[in-house]
Every structure is written in C-alpha cells, then in structure tokens.
Amino acid sequence: MSPVHALLLSVALGAWAPERPHPLHLSTTAIAIDEAAVFLRVRMFKNDLEAALAAATGLDTLALAATAEYDALFLGYFGEGFELRFDGATVTPEIVASGEDLATRAGDERIWWVELRYAVPAGFETLGIRAAFLYEQFDDQRNIVRVLHTGTGRQRTLYFAAPDDGWSEVRLG
Q1: pLDDT for 58-91, tens place per residue?
Q2: Treating both helix axes as pointing N-terminal to C-terminal, what angle do 46-57 and 68-81 enclose, rounded to 10 degrees?
Q3: Domain boundaries, the chain
C-alpha cells in the first residue's frame, strides 16, 4: 500500500486527525441590570479557558468541572481581566452557577459558561466595563459584551479586542 493510500485509510478510520489551530478566540458576555443586582453570563471556548487557567496556575493541563474549587479558580483568574465599576466603585461578584453547554453539537468546540451576580449600589448611573480576560493567552482574543437595563429596555453591545486593555462606559440614566 502506498503512503498516500495508508494516510487516506487512517483518516477514513479515524485513526489520525491533523492538529488544527483554534480558528477563533472569542467570548460573549451578557449583562442584565435590574434595581438590586447585576447578573452576568459569560461564555467562552472550554479549551481556551482550560489553557488560560492551567497557565495561570503553573499546570501543564487542566480539565474543568463544575465544582466550587474550579469556580474559585475561575473567579480569581476572571477578576484579573474583567471588571465592572458602578459610578467608579468596584464590586466583587459571586458565582451563581457554571458548567459546560451540553447543547453543543457533536464536532463543535465545547463551550463553558459561568453566571455571576454583583450586588450593586442603589441608583448607580454609569457602568464601567473592562473585558480583557484571555488576552494573555491569545493575542487575537475578542470579547463581546451585551448590556441590557431591564427597567428601561436600553441595550448596548461593546467589543473588546486584544491587546487593547481599555475601559468602556455605559450611561444608564
């Protein structure tokens, strides 16, 4: 059998798969603002987050699981690159839930999501956002943040791209 035929046969049988570079480094974050709290749901590629958390902790590899230990690890890492400021005041979030998106189709990249809650100062009018997480891992990282004020229905979408580590502001009033 020729080397070409052997390669084609191994591919057909699933015995060989070429290494492909990750085609896109992207996260999406949805922020919902109500009178008492701000809720955030961030979604990112699971393997990207695993690589970033492994690098941040000095491990060779890491396999995420929805546990308090990994939630704490995520919160420490996430807080380094993602911040919200309410009229200039920083508030530390708490994780409500996390896990793998089980609706992902076979063959697609796995998605990891985390839901966070921020207790906010009453009557704040300006939300400052910095979304620079995963920048240290991927120089082409993109983070899209959608903000919805549930009381007024006002929406805004923000785009953050590595290496820019800047802030954006959303005025609510």
Answers
A1: 999 999 999 999 999 999 999 999 999 999 999 9
A2: 90
A3: 22-171
